[in-house]
Amino acid sequence: MNGHGNSNGFGNGGFSVVEWEHIRRHHRRHHPAETQCSSALVKHIKAPVHLVWSLVRRFDQPQKYKPFVSRCVVKGNLEIGSLREVDVKSGLPATTSTERLELLDDEEHILSIRIIGGDHRLRNYSSIISLHPEIIDGRPGTLVIESFVVDVPEGNTNDETCYFVEALIKCNLKSLADVSERLAVQDRTEPIDRI
Fold first, then answer.
1. Number of neighbours of residue 157 by Cβ within 10 angstroms
2. Paired strand residues for 132
3. Pairwise CA distance, residues 87 & 98, whole Å
4. Cα distance between the two ends of the chain
5. Fewer CB under 10 Å: which end of the chain, C or N?
6. Neighbouring-strand partners of residue 145
7. What number of CA atoms fall less than 13 Å from residue 136's CA on the CB side?
8. Coil, strand or helix: which one is 181?
């Protein structure tokens, strides 16, 4: 997994050519200001895209793979502009977050959200997560890329802010991989059980 915080954009150091091409194509919507930091992280998951996407696309149920979410309530229909109220588990410097669905593209496998409120310090936070098919160890796998931009809170540095947000995203991506790979193994073993 790579994380590359940079207040002026992503750079391309540390990313493979394929990863960088996906970042360039799908994650350049972030235009960080001087008082913001941004980064992109990647995770290779040993599960097919359709399975990983079935978890990621659930704007209404982030707790299916995000370990810090205890509850989520969506207001209205699930569509662009929908709002969700997220309750955060104890241990983090927050208890609630209000988030808006900015983009849900089932063909390109892209989800984008913006945090618009809550009792935390993530002001003007926006993220994009995209999924891309790949082959891992001869089996269908998924390249997941998540990028973000956020204000650097007063009293914090760019590096501190990026480090904190990257740590949260890394936990979420690890959990997404664990849940997806567990489901993929169940999918692969199910036909054997029927024989």
1. 11
2. 143
3. 9
4. 38
5. C
6. 42, 130
7. 17
8. helix
User: 97 and 120 in contact (C-beta within 8 Å)?
Assistant: yes
Contact assessment for residue 83 and residue 116, using Cβ atoms and an 8 Å cutoff: yes
- At 70, list the tokens: 């205890």
Q: How many CB atoms lie under 10 A from the CB of residue 155? A: 7
* Interval 35-53 mean pLDDT: 96
Give the pTM.
0.87
Give me the pLDDT at residue 94, please. 78
Q: What is the dihedral of CA 12, 134, 130, 30, to 10 degrees?
A: 10
Q: How far apart are CA 182 and CA 190, in angstroms?
A: 12
Alpha-carbon distance of 31 to 33, in angstroms, equals: 7
Q: Is the pLDDT of residue 31 over 50?
A: yes
Q: Which residue, chain included where needed, has tokens 């109220």?
A: 85
Of the candidates 58, 51, 54, 64, the one whose C-alpha atom is nearest the C-alpha of residue 139 is 51
Q: Tokens standing for 49?
A: 């895209």
pLDDT of residue 13: 60
